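hey can u run this one w/ zinc ion bound, need the structure tokens asap thx
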Amino acid sequence: MRGLVIKSTGSCYIVRMDDGTNVECHIKGNFRIRGIRSTNPVAVGDFVEVQTLADGTNWIIEIEDRKNYIIRKSTNLSKESHILAANVDQVALIVTVNHPVTSTTFIDRFLATCEAYRVRAILIFNKIDLLTEDELAQLAELRALYESIGYPTLEISAISIQPSDLSPLFEGKTTLLSGNSGVGKSTLLNALFGKEMTRTGKISDAHDKGMHTTTFSEMYFLEDGAIIDTPGIKGFGTIDFQKDEVSHYFREIFAAGRDCRFGNCTHTNEPGCAVQDKIITGDIAISRYESYLSILNDATEGKYRG
Ligand SMILES: Nc1nc2c(ncn2[C@@H]2O[C@H](COP(=O)(O)OP(=O)(O)OP(=O)(O)O)[C@@H](O)[C@H]2O)c(=O)[nH]1
Ligand SMILES: [Mg+2]
Ligand SMILES: [Zn+2]
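ok here u go:
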């Protein structure tokens, strides 16, 4: 029978079957999807075929083709990749200007991956109640930057938000919540449901970082739509990017690049580079360009080839 993977614990999967029941399923050790080397061959959001054996155990025997998925490498050097979720309509990247600090490199690497896999991304800036004047100014700048590139942004305080404030954003869609540990993904989820669906954690006093409270990805159903809460992630290693396609995943760099003198301009040291010009005039943000270079360097050195 067919079902939808709604929770993944590493050793087993909870699958919501088409008849509405939830069953615990296993996969064979050698189960692999062709062409993707990942630590988790099956991800939350996958539609699967389940077989029940005579001893009552349930086995995932097939995965339906994915509409899309979000995949990352845990560190820049790791070979194994991890699929955050499959078949999502949008990604809500939860970020915080402080407590903890989300880096622009992290944001841009994540957004580049969303571009590569053609998933709509929105940026939700959380914990605005904790920000100083300076940090609020920084927040405004970041929002203006990402809005100008074409990403919808939002600023909230998940500890005081009402479900009705958020639901229009999530209605009728399957949304992946992602971001660093401690940014408030689970708090946002609970706020959206108006009750405690999952545990939230403290921020460590010493480092102002999250404590990796959520350890498994899980899908929660709204009346119309679904939210996938995921464990917080540190780095965002991008995968499978060819050097000459990295600029495709930075919208404003790609657009400016049409005016470069050379068609194959990498926007690093070529003459007549329109991207360089726009950095000088301030039309392209240096933070974005640095993120672009960081992925370009990885691609050049082949670090992410699997
Ligand atoms: N002041 C304030 N605290 C918040 C806000 N949102 C979340 N927090 C707090 O931040 C801490 C971490 O929140 P979580 O929701 O557990 O963070 P998470 O992103 O799910 O973290 P992981 O599961 O570790 O990835 C908790 O103590 C929350 O109460 C907010 O808007 N304002
Ligand atoms: Mg959490
Ligand atoms: Zn150029």
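Residues 185-186, 213-214 surround magnesium ion (ligand 2) (CB under 6 Å). anyway lmk if its weird
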